[in-house]
Every structure is written in C-alpha cells, then in structure tokens.
Amino acid sequence: MIHFGDGAFDLGFSLTHFLSKAHYLETKRESFLNAARQYWNDYADRIGSGPLRQGLEARAVRHTLACLVARCVGRSPLEYLSIDQRELQAEVVTQLINNPPATIDEMTARFESEIEKRSFGSK
Questions:
Q1: Distance (Å, rounded) from C-alpha 103 to C-alpha 113?
Q2: Do 32 and 19 form a contact (C-beta atoms < 8 A)?
Q3: Helix 104-122 vs helix 56-73: crossing angle, to nearest 10
C-alpha cells in the first residue's frame, strides 16, 4: 500500500508489519526487529539530510504506533494475530503512544521489551 501525502505514513505502515511479525513469530523476533531497524536506516540513508528528512523519524514513529493499534482494534485486524495477541499489542502500543519514543530504534526496543515482558508474565 502507498498513498499520496506524508511519506512517514508509508514508513509507519511498513514498520507495522515488521513489528507485528516480531510479536507473532517469537522465534524470529530478533530477525524482524533487525529488519525494521535496517529498513529505517536504509530509507534514511537514501533520502539524506535534506528537507524531506526534517521531522520524518518522529512522524514515522507516530504513524507506526497508530497503524499498530489500528491493525489490532480497527476494521482490518491482522489475521495472523490471535485475539489475545491483538489485545496485548494494542495495550503495549497504547502505552507507547502515551509516552512516545523519539526514534525508530527506541520504539523498536521498547516494543520488544514490553511485548516480551507481558508475554512471559501471562504464561
């Protein structure tokens, strides 16, 4: 999916799938999280430091968080997440929205930490 408008939405939509798959596929979690980080780093390198880069990362974080919640509680939930996984992801992301990370790396690390902490706590 792609749209006309803020390119940070496209980043957020893409990063949503990396992070959601990291949540879903515990044995491949690190691979998906590393892919998310690499995706952002490659994207940022390609656009350079010009005007397109100003504020992009912060907007991408916000779009990612919004998409992560939307794909759990919205009209188009991720079919591969169970209901419990969707509820957990929505809970974790709501917490991140209330105290937003400044960078993609911070968002990825905090998402991972909270998913793992809450997943292990519920087992």
A1: 15
A2: yes
A3: 30
